Amino acid sequence: MKIVYMGTPDFAVAPLKALCEAGHEVALAVTKPDRAKDRGKKMQSCPVKIAALELGIPVHSPEKIKGNEEFLEELKSIAPDLIVVAAYGKILPKTVLELPKYGCVNVHASLLPAYRGSAPIHRAVIDGCEKTGVTIMMMEEGLDSGDMLASASVEIGEKTTAQLHEELSRLGAELLVKTIPGLEDGRAVRTPQDDSLATYAPMVFKEEGVIDFSKTARQICCLVRGFNSWPTASTMLDGQVMKVHEARPGKDVPTGKAPGTVISAGKKGIEAACADGTVLLTNIQMPGKKAMDAAAFLLGHKIEIGTVLG
């Protein structure tokens, strides 16, 4: 099948490679444009562009899709059987959605209709969901609202967003390759989404990662895992931003102390009071330093009991 592939970040690399390995003709890869890294310094290509060029696939990175007649004509000249989208980052207009013979499909990192939107993995972890997954869906003009073709789930457990990101990318690649033949021979079953069950996963902002110690230990740990490895949860220690890469529940008995009060600091980590007991911050990072076990940090940096984080 002749395919135009549209994607940008690491998540979209595995599905692209899987299409090529399955023998499909990826005639064009469409990505977001190169961006300056580190405040206007060297221009950096996105992961999909790098992977596509390594695979010998032509790449187009238009600034916009809607109203871009030149780009639309390029797609028409290719005459793709299918457009595959995975975390592209731009909304496709009707003129593009209706162009391919078999339509446009999206590899979405949630079990739709849950977590439509741009940050489904982050939100599922932050919200403490037991499982998440990948859905292959037909695209329409609505936000991740098209008919579902296939889905597969995974347990979240204690996984971080970074770990799930990699796992779901691989799972999405496998599911995509299995699903495409059904579109071609008519076996694919389109299941409409129940819009009444839809939830949304808006973009994640750095400010949301500030730890609120008035919440439960589980909520705090879910936030830390949800923001790992980007943009990273944080709190304040002695007037400095302390990033928190790992945390786990401590004692499940209320301390009577103000939220964020340091109860102990030693081999187990930095133990702070929270809504239902304590939470242990076990891997932290201070400004200009590398991430390290909190116990190792405490060997050279004493934290007084009673210090209030945040």
Describe the structure.
The chain is of the alpha/beta class. It has 2 domains: 2-197, Rossmann fold; 206-300, Roll (Methionyl-tRNA Fmet Formyltransferase, Chain A, domain 2), CATH 3.10.25.10. It is built from 8 helices and 15 strands. It has helices spanning 13-21, 47-54, 69-78, 94-97, 120-126, 161-185, 217-226, 294-300, and strands at 2-7, 25-30, 35-36, 43-44, 59-60, 82-86, 104-108, 131-138, 148-155, 233-237, 240-249, 262-266, 269-274, 277-285, 292-293. The strands form 3 sheets. It has a 7-stranded mixed sheet with strand order 5-2-1-6-7-8-9. Strands 10, 11, 12, 13, 14 and 15 form a 6-stranded antiparallel sheet that branches. Strands 3-4 form a two-stranded antiparallel sheet. Helix 1 (13-21) packs parallel to helix 6 and helix 5 (120-126) packs antiparallel against helix 7 (217-226). The longest helix is centred in the middle third of the chain and has 25 residues, at 161-185.
Question: What's the arrangement of secondary structure elements?
Answer:
Elements: E1 2-7, H1 13-21, E2 25-30, E3 35-36, E4 43-44, H2 47-54, E5 59-60, H3 69-78, E6 82-86, H4 94-97, E7 104-108, H5 120-126, E8 131-138, E9 148-155, H6 161-185, H7 217-226, E10 233-237, E11 240-249, E12 262-266, E13 269-274, E14 277-285, E15 292-293, H8 294-300
Parallel strand pairs: 1-2, 1-6, 2-5, 6-7
Antiparallel strand pairs: 3-4, 7-8, 8-9, 10-11, 11-14, 12-13, 13-14, 14-15
Helix pairs in contact: 1-6, 5-7
